[in-house]
């Protein structure tokens, strides 16, 4: 058995997290240090590519609960279905959703280079803080500890065989984590998610402003939870308001309107059941919306298969 596949000493990462290592800002994930891994740099990190990953996109919205994780997971699955080597990295340290969305919960093993080995489901490689901590435990890090953890998630994962595309599921806001990510890695672009509701659209504009300030190209905007089609009367309701505001924002910021994901109970249920729409209902109109968005994004960033 190659070393990377060999079972590692008992759930070492979880245990490390609960020992004195959590007090050490250099290594919040508690990965054992080997001579082969470059030591974390002190001070401001340098922008660099994620090893073995061709393209990286971030799925973002300044507001929480608008469907970032749902869209990110379905996009990663759509890329896999389109034939790309796809991965997803959950950078929401405080509220990781990828373990639930991909029905994965094992503690990741370490490679012989002491890097985290991703967990795979539905053909997508995944990594999340949620695999490293007890699902019900709150991560109560701040400042340097949080930033080091994000840095380790970005640079200390062994994406097996390399990836054509890595989707980053960002936490809400325009704060430390988002800035740290945009400063540390070469991002091929950001996809902004919003609902049509005024409060969400206002925050989406803040997200757009953040990416402009840090010179990350915005690939376009996804409108989520727009129209609800009643299963009984088949009438459409714009639950969170009309799409006018979102379309206006796209025009004002010269951004592409990438797609309109309906508010549909199956999308929520598929996600909480650990099998997102693109794999749960691959032939549905809803899945086609995600596939269409993935194709547009892929074309925008020059995504290629290897
Ligand atoms: N299009 C949709 N239709 C129905 N429910 C949705 C849709 N998009 C997201 N949801 C649900 O809304 C909630 C928030 O979504 P989530 O992806 O966790 O948002 P975020 O990552 O922005 O916080 C989840 O319960 C999710 O299942
Ligand atoms: Mg989320």
> Count of DSSP E strands?
10
Shape: globular
Strand order of the largest sheet: 3-4-2-5-1-6-7-10
Percent range of helical residues = 25-40%
Mean pLDDT: 88
Described by strand count, sense and barrel closure, the largest sheet is: 8 strands, mixed
> Would you identify the regions where 5 or more consecutive residues have pLDDT less than 50?
6-12, 18-24, 36-41
CATH superfamily: P-loop containing nucleotide triphosphate hydrolases
Protein name: P-loop containing nucleoside triphosphate hydrolase protein
Organism: Podospora didyma
InterPro entries: Mrp/NBP35_ATP-bd, NUBPL-like, P-loop_NTPase, YlxH/NBP35
Pfam families: ParA
Describe this structure in words.
By secondary structure, the chain is an alpha/beta fold. It has a single domain (55-301), classed as P-loop containing nucleotide triphosphate hydrolases (Rossmann fold, 3-Layer(aba) Sandwich). It contains ten helices and ten strands. Mean pLDDT is 88; it is low at 6-12, 18-24 and 36-41. Bound molecules: adenosine-5'-diphosphate and magnesium ion (MG). Magnesium ion (MG) binds next to α2.
């Amino acid at each position: 058995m190659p070393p990377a596949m060999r079972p590692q000493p008992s759930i070492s990462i979880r245990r490390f997290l609960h020992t004195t290592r959590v007090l050490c800002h250099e290594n919040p994930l508690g990965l054992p240090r080997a001579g082969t891994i470059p030591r974390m740099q002190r001070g401001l990190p340098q922008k660099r590519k994620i090893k073995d990953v061709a393209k990286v996109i971030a799925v973002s919205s300044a507001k929480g609960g608008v469907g970032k994780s749902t869209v990110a997971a379905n996009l990663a699955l759509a890329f896999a279905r389109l034939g790309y080597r796809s991965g997803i990295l959950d950078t929401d340290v405080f509220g990781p959703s990828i373990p639930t969305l991909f029905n994965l919960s094992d503690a990741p093993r370490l490679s012989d280079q002491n890097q985290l080995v991703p967990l795979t489901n539905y053909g997508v490689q995944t990594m999340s803080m949620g695999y490293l901590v007890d699902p019900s435990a709150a991560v109560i890090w701040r400042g340097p500890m949080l930033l080091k953890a994000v840095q380790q998630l970005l640079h200390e994962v062994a994406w097996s065989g390399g990836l054509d595309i890595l989707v980053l599921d960002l936490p809400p806001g325009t704060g430390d984590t988002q800035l740290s990510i945009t400063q540390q890695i070469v991002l091929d672009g950001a996809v902004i998610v919003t609902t049509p509701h005024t409060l969400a659209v206002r925050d989406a504009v803040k997200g757009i402003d953040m990416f402009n300030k840090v010179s990350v190209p915005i690939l376009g905007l996804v409108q989520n939870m727009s129209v609800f089609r009643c299963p009984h009367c088949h009438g459409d309701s714009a639950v969170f308001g009309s799409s006018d505001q979102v379309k206006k924002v796209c025009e004002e910021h010269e951004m592409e309107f990438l797609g309109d994901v309906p508010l549909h109970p199956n999308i929520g249920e598929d996600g909480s059941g650990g099998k997102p729409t693109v794999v749960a209902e691959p032939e549905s109109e809803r899945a086609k919306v995600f596939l269409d968005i993935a194709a547009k994004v892929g074309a925008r960033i020059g995504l290629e298969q290897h």
